[in-house]
Amino acid sequence: MLSIFAVGGAAFAAPESAAPESAAAPESAAARQGKFAPLRTLLEGWELTTEFAVSVGTSEGERFRYEGGSFTMQTLVPTASVSKWPSAMMFAGLVADGTISTLDTRVNTILPYWTKEASDPRSAITLRMLLTFTSGFGDGHPGLEANTRAAHAWRAANPAELARANASRLEFQQSAACNAVIGSNARCGKWIYEHVKLIGTPGAVYSYNSNHLQLAAAVAVAATGLPIHEITQKYLLRPYNMSHSYYKGNCPDFAGSLMTTGDDYGRFLHGLLTYQVLPREIIEQSELDATPFLKGENQLYGHYGFGHFLMCFDMAAGFTHACKEARSHMDPGAFGFIPIIDRKHGYYMQVAAAEIPPTGVYALSGIPEYLAVAAKPHVEAILAGKTGPTAAAEHAHHDMLSLSVADVNYVVDCKLHPKHCAQ
User: Fold this and answer.
1) Do residues 194 and 122 touch, judged by C-beta distance below 8 A?
2) What would you report as the CA-atom Rg of the chain, rounded to the nearest whole angstrom?
């Protein structure tokens, strides 16, 4: 059993990259291999899933990669909610190049049908609210699709909210305007505006669903005058060199339809980490806590920024001070693809997986989330140079023990009894 199982082409000019704090001689490939050997050993010993890949990178680029089973960093996979982070940053790109003046530009200045009546709370909705899922359109919760222990518990405890959200999702999927094949993002945005009710005051309520990014897509089409797939090329796929990635459908669901590879998504993470595509100011805005009003509530993943969580994994106490100080960001997907950026230590990592056929078994999709959380402190130890003669002791240190007995019980039960995990 692993020691980690224990209690406890740019569309706009690139701004100046973050410089390392001190100059150092380039590290050889052999030195990197030796430094990351303890992590590779742990990943090779992971018996709970086999079809996954892991990469770690810094401002200098990729520093480590592991590929398990037949899964590689070139395997093209659906990502589910992992789509949300790149989609949000793609739409933020319209502010970076001046197509939209600011993140706080009101939607009613771009979409002609959008109300300007001050008495209608929809009139106050801004691009920022759409990207942070705080516009108020529709209900939803990360527990709707996540496959973690906490997500299962949330679904069991909230049957009424689950039923409402599933009904809303079904209505959205069945609408001709939003249909992936025959719909269009412009018409879909108007359909959401006309059919989906607000659940609270824009900017002061959070809901995890597809409505916000579909509205952002309608804004982007109106602001640029471009077809939606030209927008994806101009503001995401070319700037981050995601050459094998695409969004499915004529009317993509930007919250869940991105097809990508580990290599492509790694380039996206590196671009954010180094501020090489979007200006630093916009990326810093994207990483602010947009949902402070959730303070004290039980968190599956943490508070929310632009299409991603400020990482605070499965905390009953809510978004803690320790989570805030950790300055980590994650965007977990229902199929087990888990990307993370750690600003405090200056690196990105990803567990690339798709626990659905043919690359995996859906019932196991919760397991990679625990692998990512458990491996993260080992990555930090390695990057800090804690890989000398005492490496074995370091990997049994209390700082490495990031999973609880309940977490271990969940992933083992998920492996031994997949039907339990699929509920």
Assistant:
1) no
2) 21
What is the pTM assigned to this prediction?
Answer: 0.91
DSSP structural state of residue 319: S
Reported as a single tens digit per residue, the pLDDT across 14-56 is 334 444 444 455 677 777 778 899 999 999 999 999 999 999 9
Asked whether the beta carbons of 226 and 155 are under 8 A apart, the reply is no
Which residues lie across from 246 on neighbouring strands?
Answer: 259
Within 8 A by CB and 6+ apart from 159, the residues are none
CB atoms within 10 A of CB 371: 24
Sheet strands side by side (includes 309-311): 61-67, 52-58, 347-353, 338-342, 328-330, 309-311, 302-304
Q: Which of 95, 60, 12, 14 is nearest to 306 (CA)?
A: 95
Report d(CA 394, CA 30) in Å as an integer: 22
Closest by alpha carbon to 177, among 118, 101, 249, 225? 249
What is the Cα–Cα distance from 417 to 365, expressed in whole angstroms?
Answer: 13
Instruction: Return the structure tokens found at 53.
Output: 């890949």
Q: What is the pLDDT, as a whole number, of residue 295?
A: 87
E-strand ranges in 167-272 read: 246-247, 258-260
Cis amide linkage into residue 20, ω under 30° from 0? no
Would strands 302-304 and 77-78 be described as parallel, antiparallel, or unpaired? unpaired
- What pLDDT is attached to residue 362? 85
Give the DSSP H/E element, type plus range, for residue 338: strand 338-342
pLDDT at 385: 87
How many Cβ atoms are within 10 Å of 199's Cβ, its own excluded? 16
Cα–Cα distance, 276 to 409 (Å, whole number): 42
pLDDT of residue 21: 42
120 Cβ neighbours under 8 A, 6+ residues apart: none
Other Cβ atoms less than 10 A from the Cβ of 56: the count is 25
Which ranges of the chain have pLDDT less than 70? 1-26, 387-398, 423
Give the C-alpha separation, 386 to 398, whole Å. 14
